[in-house]
Each structure stands twice: as C-alpha cells, then as structure tokens.
Amino acid sequence: MQFTMKCEICRGKAEFTFLEKPLGTFINKKFVCNNCQKSNSVEEIKNKVK
Questions:
Q1: DSSP string spanning 13-25?
Q2: What pTM did the predictor assign?
Q3: Distance between CA 45 and CA 50 in Å, rounded?
Q4: pLDDT, tens digit, for every residue of 3-48?
Q5: Between β-strands 30-33 and 24-27, what pairing exists: parallel, antiparallel or unpaired?
Q6: Which among 7, 2, 9, 3 is positioned nearest to 48, based on CA atoms?
Q7: Distance between CA 36 and CA 19 in Å, rounded?
Q8: Nearest to 23 by CA among 36, 42, 9
C-alpha cells in the first residue's frame, strides 16, 4: 500500500523503500525529499518550508 506524499519544496512525488518508509525527512512536520536536501542548505530548507 503506497501513500501519496509530495515534497514541500519541489512538489515531486516521494519515493519509498521496500518497507514503505519515505526516502527523505520531515522538517516542521512537512516532508522534504532527498534531492532537495542535497541541493539546499538547512537554512534554505527551513525558510522554504515555513
């Protein structure tokens, strides 16, 4: 059963592991994908997620 989650920054569809865990993290209770984490600094991510 796949959940539909989208990244708050790029609005891309979240990828999941075989255990149905999202590949990314939650910042301020909002999902951010791995690609956005790699391309942005922590301060930039926090400002974009607000």
A1: BPPB-TTS-BSEE
A2: 0.81
A3: 9
A4: 788 999 999 999 999 998 999 999 999 999 999 999 999 999 999 9
A5: antiparallel
A6: 9
A7: 22
A8: 36
